[in-house]
Design goal:
The chain has 349 residues and is an alpha/beta fold. It contains 13 helices and eight strands.
Length: 349
């Protein structure tokens, strides 16, 4: 009986680990590295660097993706609309996408902010507007505090920057554990995660529509690779204690700041994080958009770009643009609802 059970366990482990390794290779073949790895002092960060064009009217822009993401997310949202307007650096955060993890301090926003500053050095970017989405907001805030002379402005998009009640999801805690985490990420994450990519990405956009080509363009499956998932989980697990310590220091940030958030964000609560930033950073402008979820980078890209222009010193009425975006979101929601009703009628008739 014991021998049979042991054989079954070994068979499961071998099969599950083999499946995970096979799918990891398949995911990397489907979504190969589109950036360039740069040594920043014993390890390499991956990034897509778009040099400053002759027609540029904006400062350099550095984009920091959120949890479970990679550089493709912000690249797909902004590279096209901002083409010809600025030097842009889209970064795989340490341990994400195709970037190497680096030293232990890279498990915290402060370490990742310093890593980004070193990459900017390597790329000849003296200063920039720093754009952080979701978890990237904590790193953007850390950058603003630790590298004020290199921060021309800060744009926070649905940022995660302040303490919150309830902790983190159990699977992050498990994945970050030393031994159980290794087993979990190598045996369980891949088969379960692949089944949740569709629903997971839809939930990130909720209540707004997710672009039909979002998965293909942004490669969210990359986070399911065992080492990447563990790095992501460690980041998330460490975030609460980190922001609890560092949020009281946000008043040190002096760079021009804009925060764009949605009142229907179920991922990061705007009343805690975005309002907290607006309270803590002197002179920050808070732009709250009704019926917007967690993806202002995609749903209200025009408002985000106007905020970049505002941070660059150009006159922009962000509140008016937000009101226009609300009308657009309401119209799209009504159209989607009507289309769904028609579909239901056709299906049931």
């Amino acid at each position: 009986m014991i021998d049979s059970l042991l054989t079954a366990v070994i068979t499961f482990v071998v099969f599950a680990a083999g499946f995970s390794a096979y799918k990891t290779r398949e995911i990397e073949q489907t979504y190969p590295n589109i950036g360039e790895l740069t040594d920043i002092g014993g390890y390499r960060l991956n990034a897509v660097h778009l040099p400053r064009p002759a027609s540029a009217d904006l400062p350099a822009l550095v984009f920091i993706h959120g949890a479970s993401g990679n550089l493709r997310d912000q690249l797909a949202a902004f590279a096209g609309p901002l083409s010809g307007r600025a030097e842009m650096l889209f970064i795989d955060r340490p341990g994400h996408g195709y970037s190497e993890r680096g030293p232990a301090e890279n498990a915290f926003p402060s370490g990742q902010a310093d890593a980004i500053a070193r990459l900017m050095d390597k790329r000849g970017i003296k200063s920039a507007i720093i754009i952080g989405h979701s978890f990237g907001g904590a790193i953007a805030a850390a950058f603003g505090m630790r590298h004020p002379d290199r921060t021309e402005g800060l744009l926070f998009l649905a940022p995660a920057t302040h303490p919150w009640p309830g902790g983190v999801d159990w699977y992050y805690t498990l994945a970050a554990m030393p031994i159980l985490g290794w087993l979990f990420t190598h045996l369980v994450v891949m088969p379960i995660g692949l089944r949740r990519v569709e629903t997971g990405t839809l939930s990130i956009f909720h209540p707004n529509a997710r672009p039909a080509d979002y998965i293909m363009k942004t490669a969210p499956e990359l986070v399911l690779r065992p080492h990447t998932f563990r790095n992501n989980a460690t980041d998330v697990v460490n975030l609460l204690a980190y922001v609890s310590t560092h949020a009281p220091r946000y008043n040190e940030i002096k760079a021009p700041t804009v925060i764009i958030t949605g009142d229907s964000d179920d991922i990061v609560l705007e009343e805690l994080h975005s309002r907290g930033l607006a309270r803590d950073i002197g002179g920050a402008e808070l732009v709250t958009i009704r019926n917007l979820g967690h993806k202002p980078d995609y749903v209200t890209t025009d408002v985000a770009i106007a905020a970049l222009e505002r941070l660059a010193g150009q006159p922009r009425d962000l509140q008016m643009l937000a009101a226009q975006a609300e009308i657009r979101i309401t119209s799209l929601t009504e159209e989607a609802s009507q289309a769904n009703e028609v579909s239901q009628v056709v299906t049931t008739s």
